[in-house]
Design goal:
Blueprint: E1 3-9, H1 11-14, H2 17-28, E2 35-46, E3 53-62, E4 85-89, H3 93-104, E5 108-112, H4 120-131, H5 162-174, H6 194-207, E6 211-213, E7 218-224, E8 227-233, E9 238-240, E10 244-246, H7 253-261, E11 267-268, E12 272-280, H8 281-289, E13 306-309, E14 312-320, E15 324-327, E16 337-340, E17 349-357, H9 373-388, E18 395-399, H10 400-404, E19 421-423, H11 432-448, E20 458-463, E21 470-471, E22 487-489, H12 500-518
Parallel strand pairs: 4-5, 4-10, 5-6, 10-22, 18-19
Antiparallel strand pairs: 1-3, 2-3, 7-8, 8-9, 11-21, 12-17, 12-20, 13-14, 14-17, 15-16, 18-20
The structure holds flavin-adenine dinucleotide.
Length: 519
Amino acid sequence: MPKELLIQVAPEIASNEEMLKVHVSKLLHVSVSEIQHLTILKRSIDARQRAIKINLKLLVFYQGDEVQLDKITLPEYKDVSNAAEVIVVGAGPAGLFAALQLVELGLRPIVIERGKDVRGRRRDLKAINRDHIVDEDSNYCFGEGGAGTYSDGKLYTRSKKRGDVDRILRLLVAFGATPDILVEAHPHIGTNKLPQIIQDIREKIIEHGGKVLFETRVSDILIKNNEVQGIVTQHNDVIEAKKIILATGHSARDIFELLDRKKVLIEAKPFALGVRAEHPQSLIDSIQYSCDFRGEFLPPAPYSIVKQVNGRGMYSFCMCPGGVIAPCATSPGEVVTNGWSPSKRDQATANSGIVVELKLEDFKPFAKFGALAGMEFQKAIEQKAWHLAGETQKVPAQRLVDFTQSKVSATIPKTSYVPGTTSVELGQVFPGFLTQIMREGFVQFGKSMRGYYTNDAILHAPESRTSSPVRIPRDHETLEHLQIKGLYPCGEGAGYAGGIISAAIDGEKCAIKCAESLK
Ligand code: FAD
């Protein structure tokens, strides 16, 4: 009988199969030759002590045991060419996983995506980085794969529903992600690996009869007697359907404006906003691993930190070890930061959003915008930052200690943010209460993570697209919009997800509810 075993080992043992076998054989008081195979079920790092350990959950197969390897295959997708059609707006994780699920359930998804396919998108990303040109339909947030495509591809989520998370992870593996994501405590894929996976998902949808339209922006939703009838594209083409899964993400401001104009119920939603901090990765390694040099067996260290300042949470968000800060604006006239990293996380810098939770009352100066007040608050800060940094895709930047002391930095070194930075006192970018909280919070961070509070860290502003500033309310049971029949607000933009995995899970849930209502 195979035996389950929980152990802690040194990093060099965890990364060497032979050494691990020897270690396990000693623990179990058997000879190495009696151990046929080790399967790693879970892996995490324990960096609480000076000597860092790797926690492993293993399945030990002895000689004579039948080694059962976990075979990961795709579901049996049906041919849906002639099936009932469902419009899916947006090809982010929510839209793509909704479409896959629809195919699995025998329905035909028509996926409508304003941006280009994942390869075509690259040219537009180059244009933002090099020429400061932002295409409003194809950028770091818009295009096939959605906002998560050129990201760190972190795949952890606060969702407690392990079954739902595992299903998405297994689908990703079936589409080409490394099986390691099934065992790592903090799995990630990386920007270099995600595009192929996304392309394969799209090809599978098409192979089974689904349709995917790129460079097609939904400009109107047709509604009659409080029931959806279809959509209109920017070319004035009408596509009819009685079911629409609306998965347009947190940056589709035109969709929020459209719904508001059409008097379809939406609500302002609190989100979080702040800066993106960049430190040398070696510094973060030395703080997190309590060592001078990480060595070859440990990955670049992540960090996660939260403090309460003046009654508000200030916390790290979407931390990218060995990563790069990306220009994530979706319109000209604004700047926005976020972060990505390659699968090896081998860049010299570590970046993280450091954000403060906002409350609905913070949006009061924008009250005349009603449900769009939070979105206008967000937009105003992004536009101000654009203006202060010189009206290109350069962002305002300041050294960390200088920021806490309201001092304009005399110099800003080159950072990973390719379009460049302009030295600005960041207190000018944010409302006073936010600046105050961040100034105090960073000093507190330095007390918990010794070395973090340093002028070698560069703050970039703003980090503003942490989650949707709007919620599109839906019925808890049917997942349909509270007023509009056949409309399924879905994913991060509607306020029901906060990352790649939770968006994908929500996409599947909406597809299932759609299918149930069509029965
Ligand atoms: P989105 O991914 O935003 O997709 C929405 C899609 O709808 C887009 O493709 C858009 O083009 C399309 N669309 C919008 N309006 C229209 C319209 N009118 N007509 C047609 N199509 C439209 N999350 C993680 O979990 N891990 C990470 O490591 C991570 N890193 C990130 C790094 C970056 C740089 C960014 C920007 C985000 C990152 N995120 C990460 C967040 C993650 O990408 C999002 O939470 C996730 O993509 C949300 O999925 P979604 O499908 O709900 O929306």
